[in-house]
Amino acid sequence: MAQLSIVSGSVGLITLQNPPVNALSAAVRQGIVDTVEKALSDPKVKSVVIRGQNGVFCGGADIKEFGTKMTGPHLIPMIHAIEAGNKPMVAAIEGSALGGGLELALGCHYRVAHSKARLGLPEVTLGLLPAAAGSQRLPRLIGVPAALNLITTGRHVTAAEALQLGIVDQVTDHDTVDTAVKFALNVAGQSLDARRISTFPCPRPAELDALFEDAMQKVRKSARGAIAPVACVQAVRAAATLPYAEGLERERELMATLFNSGQARALQYCFFAQRAVGRWSTPSGARWDTSKPVPVPKAAVIGLGTMGRGIAVALAQTGLSVVAVETQEKQMMEAKQAVSGMLERGAKRRGVAPVSDKISYSGNIRAVADVDLVIEAVFEDMAVKEKLFQQLSAICKPGALLCTNTSALDVDHLASQTRNPELVVGMHFFAPAHVMKLLEVVYGRRSSTQAVATAMQLGKKMGKVSVAVGNCRGFVGNRMLKPYIEQAFYLLEEGATPELVDRALEEFGFSMGVFRMSDLSGLDVGWRVRKGDGLVEPGLASGPSARVRQGRRYSPLGDLLCEQGRFGQKTGRGWYQYEKPGGRVARSDPWLHSFLEGYRARHGLVARRIDHEEVLERCLYALINEGFHILEDGIAAGPEDIDVIYVFGYGWPRHRGGPMFYAGMVGLAKVLERLEHYHQAHPDVPHLQPCSLLRRLVASGSPPIHKWREVIRKLHSHL
Ligand SMILES: CCC/C=C/C(=O)SCCNC(=O)CCNC(=O)[C@H](O)C(C)(C)COP(=O)([O-])OP(=O)([O-])OC[C@H]1O[C@@H](n2cnc3c(N)ncnc32)[C@H](O)[C@@H]1OP(=O)([O-])[O-]
């Protein structure tokens, strides 16, 4: 919807009305067409201002309409009619002008923006390109290199940058609409010949071919198989090399390919899934909209290892006062230096002053007595954490929330060490905690609604994508990782190499394969956990029992490497070799290959040829199968929660939507059939036995992912 009024005697003011972001739904497009027509034909109107209701110009095309039957006027002719009009049109940009919203503004003859506004063409992040002529107008307005950057990354720019780039004509700190109306009064009656961007020649930089080749290489490298960034480069190339009308036709063709692609569907699913996880609920009935968080002006972090430092920085950057506690002097000294470096770099990147004064350091745990929330990030050892929670329970003020950053340990057990178990929740950050977007908020059996709501809100304030999950070993992310890694180990036993497994996963789109990732995070981490679980049995070199633990198939490969001191990057050797301890560039290691051969010979294993398809099916379907168990157990409220965790925390390629979405794309029946096949071949691997929820979904006709919750609800109501 859109409304036209006349202000200051001769300015037609068109207001887009579709809260919250004035997305260009069919009704809004119709409203724009009607009001523009009226304004152009009304002799009283000498110029026009277009603005959005409620301080947001326009969030772009209505993403909810994608995939449905398109009705109403099309964007391109609508924007052309604005540009071709004989009265000056001024876009008054407040809040956001994104995607189709910015394309609408580029069809106007002038753009005035509030200093706090954000502008951009983020279509690429939805698997699309700016196909309402944005890919053709923007390069004509700001030049090819700048347009390529904006369109292929989808990044939002500030009003100041937009002014510098030439996207907007004026930036104001005052009322945007008032400023735009004054602007419109000033330009009324002036010639518009030089203001219609589609008529501009596109500036042709020297070395055009090299420029586009370079851009293509860059996007191919960073896109990890995503097709939209490549199409974006092709569309901008069309702007630079073809007349406008032909460029527009090329834009249309490219968009047609993208629009119906699985990648666009996956990315749009991710957009909504990211927002859906904010509407959390727990099996006890706690909900995002009925729970009240408590304010947290002051927080503490205990333990200043890698995680603790990142968490302290993230809290301080959010504006909280932070007490950072570390009892070991050497660690404290290193941490202070590291934290101040992180704060300085962060401040520089964001163009603000560092907030070092927000953090006070102490070697004494009693310093946390007056804080509102504590996050412990001490060594991942239950005995150490138990003792700490007992101490915290005695020291902290009444009502203070006690959070653990454990990545797998039992939150209920920790809560049982305190006087107020309802105040205990898990806040599982991902390293580096000041950078990674994901936060798993783990509610225990006795966690209060308020405690969950407070942790979720704090995560949001810290700029994290927070997902509420139930308490179980490894929560959602790490629990699913276990069968994935296990399959990778088995594949090595059966004939694969780390290089082959990693290549298959990286070609699928993961930023790093499982073995490169293991080298980065340290093989000793999993080793310690397996030792704690009583799985590591040194000296059991051969014989059938060497590969069976606790009644199931077990691969001791990781343990054997650790026994050799091969902990990954930090020791310069792991699944790969590195130029030095701490080196980053993984190189194939002949030692590892002959070690694998020796291992297979010792255990009577005959290497067979393993292809990429098997690597993907075994690793990914085992992980997905665990995802179904998690849904069945009620640890995650819905598939979106799992997918968001994997996309934001585990390098799952966003254009594949997350593991559960991917399962739906592949076809649940196929996933089930392949799991059955592999389980038959490996009956001693319980993780390959298809989950009953998967069977139930297939039996009920493999409903689309947004319907899975109904099946899960029915399942739970029968239990
Ligand atoms: C020919 C085609 C060419 C053009 C293509 C395009 O334009 S493609 C589009 C290119 N545009 C983009 O990619 C921009 C996408 N949008 C954004 O980046 C952000 O929403 C924001 C920065 C505009 C506002 O951030 P914020 O943190 O203030 O708010 P929030 O993010 O929480 O959203 C609030 C609610 O609005 C909903 N919703 C939002 N946008 C759309 C939409 N376009 N459509 C529908 N719905 C949309 C959102 O789901 C949420 O709903 P819920 O969960 O409450 O039911």
From TrEMBL:
Pfam families, per the entry: 3HCDH (PF00725), 3HCDH_N (PF02737), ECH_1 (PF00378)
Ranges of residues in domain 3-hydroxyacyl-CoA dehydrogenase C-terminal: 474-578, 615-702
InterPro entries: 3-OHacyl-CoA_DH_CS (IPR006180), 3-OHacyl-CoA_DH_NAD-bd (IPR006176), 3HC_DH_C (IPR006108), 6-PGluconate_DH-like_C_sf (IPR008927), ClpP/crotonase-like_dom_sf (IPR029045), Enoyl-CoA_hyd/isom_CS (IPR018376), Enoyl-CoA_hydra/iso (IPR001753), NAD(P)-bd_dom_sf (IPR036291)
Pathway connected to this protein: Lipid metabolism; fatty acid beta-oxidation
EC numbers: 1.1.1.35, 4.2.1.17, 5.3.3.8
Domain 3-hydroxyacyl-CoA dehydrogenase NAD binding: 298-471
Biological processes, Gene Ontology terms: fatty acid beta-oxidation
Subcellular location: Peroxisome
Origin superkingdom: Eukaryota
Keyword NAD on entry: yes
UniProt keyword annotations, A-Z: Fatty acid metabolism, Isomerase, Lipid metabolism, Lyase, Multifunctional enzyme, NAD, Oxidoreductase, Peroxisome
Primary subcellular site in the record, as a coarse category: other
Molecular function in Gene Ontology: (3S)-3-hydroxyacyl-CoA dehydrogenase (NAD+) activity; delta(3)-delta(2)-enoyl-CoA isomerase activity; enoyl-CoA hydratase activity; NAD+ binding
GO CC, one annotated term: peroxisome
Reactions this protein catalyses: (2S,3S)-3-hydroxy-2-methylbutanoyl-CoA = (2E)-2-methylbut-2-enoyl-CoA + H2O; a 4-saturated-(3S)-3-hydroxyacyl-CoA = a (3E)-enoyl-CoA + H2O; (3S)-hydroxyhexadecanedioyl-CoA + NAD(+) = 3-oxohexadecanedioyl-CoA + NADH + H(+); a (3S)-3-hydroxyacyl-CoA + NAD(+) = a 3-oxoacyl-CoA + NADH + H(+)
Subunit structure comment from the entry: Monomer.
Annotated family: In the C-terminal section; belongs to the 3-hydroxyacyl-CoA dehydrogenase family. Belongs to the enoyl-CoA hydratase/isomerase family.
Protein name: Peroxisomal bifunctional enzyme
Annotated organism of origin: Sparus aurata
Gene of this entry: EHHADH
